[in-house]
Amino acid sequence: MSEIPTGVLRVYFRDNTYKSLQLTLETSVKDVIQRLCQRIMATGREVDPERHELLIIAPGPLGERKLQPADRPLAIQEKAGCAAYKFLFREIPKEGISNEDVEESDWPLPVAETSQVLRSGPLERLVPSGWQKCTHAGKSLLEKLLPEVSGGKHKMGCAGVLVTPAVLDPTSGQTWDKILQENPWLKTTNLVAKPDQLIKRRGKAGLIAVNKTFDEAKQWVMDRMCKEQKVEHVTGQLTHFLIEPFVPHKQEQEHYICMLSHRYHDEILFYHEGGVDVGDVDAKAEKLELATGEAMTEALVTEKLLSKLPAAKKANMASFICSLYKFYGDLHFAYLEINPLVMLDDNTVIPLDMAAKIDETANFLVAQKWGELDWPPPFGRAAYPEEALIHEMDGRTGASLKLTILNEKGRVWTMVAGGGASVVYADTVADYGMGHELANYGEYSGAPSTEETFVYAKTLLSLMMKYKHPEGKFLIIGGGIANFTDVAATFTGLIKALQEYADDIKEHNIKILIRRAGPNYLEGLRKVKAASDKLGLGIKVYGPETHITAIIPMALGLIKDLPEPDLSAPCGPPVRKMIDLKGKKPTPKGHPAAPAGTKHTLVTATPDTTCIVYGMQNRAVQGMLDFDYMCKRKQPSVEAMIFPFSGNHYVKFYWGTEEILMPVYTTTKEAVQKHPKTSVFVNFASFRSVHETTMEAMNHGNLKTVAIIAEGVPEQQTRDIIKVAEKKGVGIIGPATVGGIKPGCLRIGNTGGMLDNIVMSRLYRPGSVAYVSKSGGMSNELNNIVARNSDGVYEGVAIGGDRYPGSRFLDHFLRYQDDPKAKMLLLLGEVGGTDEYDLIEAKKKGRITKPVVAWCVGTCASCFTTEARGDMETAAAKNKAMQEAGFHVPESFDKLPDMVNQVYTQLVMDGEIVETPEGETPQVPMDYTWAKKLGMIRKPANFISSISDDRGEELTYCGMSISDVFTKDIGIGGVLSLLWFRRQLPEYCTKFIEMILMVTADHGPAVSGAHNTIVTARAGKDLVSSLCSGLLTIGPRFGGALDDAAKMFADAQSSGVAPKEWIDKMKKSNQLIMGIGHRIKSLANPDQRVEIIKGFAKKNFKSTPVLDYALAVEQITTKKRANLILNVDGCIAVSFVDMIRSCGAFSKEECDDLMAFGCLNGLFVLGRSIGFIGHYLDQLRLKQPLYRHPWDDITYIQELAGQGPE
């Protein structure tokens, strides 16, 4: 039996805490376990190591392993030599173990920092969005910018070199020799090597090589490069390694510092001791909190953080921390931890290990300072090829496409539209006990194209076919009620994938259920149902009349399948029967009044509330006006728009069927001055300018609520906005919000979706339920749930999913509590954050007394490995805490409608809500564009185009996509044949067209067209004017003879008249023969352009009867005069006629039409434009002055015509 060296044993308890026990033991592992149990049992708890499974997490290739009594000796032998052991007791009594009898302090349960689960997809919201984290990137930035931020007082040594898998490829350009050449210090310095992939506790995992030579460090890295490694709970490949100088130092020279941001302040933690065994820094460290925008001083740092540091070190350390904090803020870090931070005897400060998180949304602000940062992939399993495909496609589109494979052999697969909806579906699968069978999660949202949906669906289906399951599989195709996505368009792509995999779907016994709603959803469901019937797939389809997650228990066989809806007409508003009070006349209890002095910063909208919209969001504004009209407002809720990139003007909108003009201003100041009664500012500015525009809006006292729609607002800017807003008493909704809605009063932006959804959810009149949601996408579902299970929505707000929302749950719920018309409150929270606990505290204190139905999505997170966070932030913990506080919490999201109905019914029975009969549903005229898209109307088009189309995925030329134009390399001749002749001509024809363009490109500066172009250019006119001047000279005497020559010779050849007879006939009728004659060229001195054209035609055309006829005419005309040859115009004309007649692409009638349409002259115009533009550029290049024709080259005649001299 192996012996155990000294180590730290951590005992994990049921409440997700553990204790560190420092033990010096020289006995066997079995004895260690027994002695450890004795210490725990001394607290009065029973633990039997022989009956309980033990989990040992240790460094080395074994990693994590459950140990049964039978295999303990083998495992112990394999683990011999490890420096530290961690024993995890899987079964612990429910009452837990007292903390009083165990040494040291509590720690959060250390789970893996990252895993493949969090690389993409909706559950990435479990970690702060837009964060990147690694050591080398942070050190590189510090090395580059520390001297600048410290005014030269501090500098950092070498940040090390990052080694990637490229060293395995000799052709990659990153070889060890090159690394050594660029970093010669590697050979002269002892080194430290370690992976740089977001792995904590690398030292305890045996993943740091210390005090090594270059060759030793190189070998250490190569032994681990791209090899699988298990670190705590995660197995993955090590792909990025950091090699840096080894810094000899003493233990007492190691310190710990951490900077992190919160909503209202930055927090700095410093501990005079550092290193791998620093312990619980939250409990030990000295702390300094700086309010947003507050300056840090060395005196403040010395007073608050450095009390335990030797006096000789304080001044230098205080200066360094101030510089580090400036660096932290200037570069938009969200978290920065250095451990250990070494201060040598000469006061040099060196960060040995560093973890940094930056706010990537600030890229547009500090990209130049960041430079090119190489962010290594998080440690975890390598991405599946299918995941990589979807990730690549996501990067090329404006839509959001995410896919993460959880269990490729799982039975339950999902294809969900919407980020929030995808979490809800995963939650429901897990809540029904099938989390272990959940195969994937992800989303396709943001209006993906038909082709993108096809690829996404095809990828999912291909994964499902990898493994067959004897009990079959389930494919859940769901989503929330979309705002803009054309459901029918996306389902067209889905149908294409189903057709491709129809046989496999039946072979693998896959049951498919669909629930979808939103724009054009009815047509989408019809198409899918028709395809299902044709393919025999038995797909069940449902619309918004069915709860979003109801198809999951149906698919799993937990409930009977609901009847499918009638797809012949859209889903109308729910028909609810009024609750029968059975003769009772209950007396409402009422609610306590708001405490004295209560003020709410957010505007509670009324039918008179108006807003100003920043940005030319015509579609959103029209939607707001349609909502106003439907709600029977007397005046539109939008008074003006702001657009700084054009002058003041008006934009036309519809008010019902009438047209109105909306003023548009260039500045917020002018808009507010001219509309002083406006209280709401809807800001559609981009993330780049939203901070500036919001700050300006808050300077105007009458604007009391600002809605920030943009996503990707840097966190520092959001915190700045929050600080100013609270100081000025302005309420903020967002950032990253869809907005909010107050039925009968105001709609912010696109909240509530299209008009048919407004009608279906009865959002045109107020109900009794007020809700707040983080997810904007799920707000439509909440509208639907409330409409079907109560008398409707009183007000709904989506506060946005950013880390720091401008307003929180509590801000809105206190307003609802104080509003007597809001009778019932509804909360939809999310995993992460602690804002829900503010509501719990308000409930406990009696500040919130109205019934609250609450649910936090993200309960499925317990099935996955996620980044370490406090247990309080999990959805399960929040739901439990809210239930204990007296909130109405359903068993799962799938039961949320039942809970809403139950609470609402009780309020009616108690007399708190008095139901009234439903009024008439209002009508709003449908936009022509949307009505036409739905196929409800038709109208003849004003224009018809048959040569190009820019409406689809990519531009097409006569049906050929632009990508195929280049893939097939058809050239300019091929493009011209598509756009001029509506067909792809043979290659020799397109080559001939290109030859025509080349030989007609120019004929020197003396011809009339070039001359005009030159004169116009020298007069200072622009390119287009100069080109037009030259083109306007083209006519029968210059370049315009091609069409006439083609017609003359084609008619003559077709008539059967001999060339001599035809010439005589033309002479008798006094007609010139077009295409015959040249100023200087003759048969003896031929025009090379003619020879080239003639030679190509003879060699490549199937027949050349018209050319032959013209050459016969030439033989006759040159006998009269040598220069009466077939010129280039004539040769091109007759050869072109032969080409179109003999290539087989045109009928005789089409050939005649082409000549009549003037396409030959068009070829000359197109070709000669090249030369004209050349002459224009040439004159500018030569800087030629204004041209004035010399007077001595002009003959002046002053006598009147018909009069001689006297």
TrEMBL record:
UniProt keyword Cytoplasm, yes or no: yes
Subcellular localization, as worded in the UniProt entry: Cytoplasm
Ranges of residues in domain Ras-associating: 5-94
Gene Ontology biological-process entries: acetyl-CoA biosynthetic process; fatty acid biosynthetic process; signal transduction
Principal location listed in the UniProt entry: cytoplasm
This protein's UniProt keywords: ATP-binding, Cytoplasm, Lipid biosynthesis, Lipid metabolism, Magnesium, Metal-binding, Nucleotide-binding, Phosphoprotein, Transferase
Subunit structure: Composed of two subunits.
Family membership noted in the UniProt record: In the C-terminal section; belongs to the succinate/malate CoA ligase alpha subunit family.
Record-linked PANTHER family: ATP-CITRATE SYNTHASE
Protein's recorded name: ATP citrate synthase
Organism annotation: Effrenium voratum
Lineage: Eukaryota, Sar, Alveolata, Dinophyceae, Suessiales
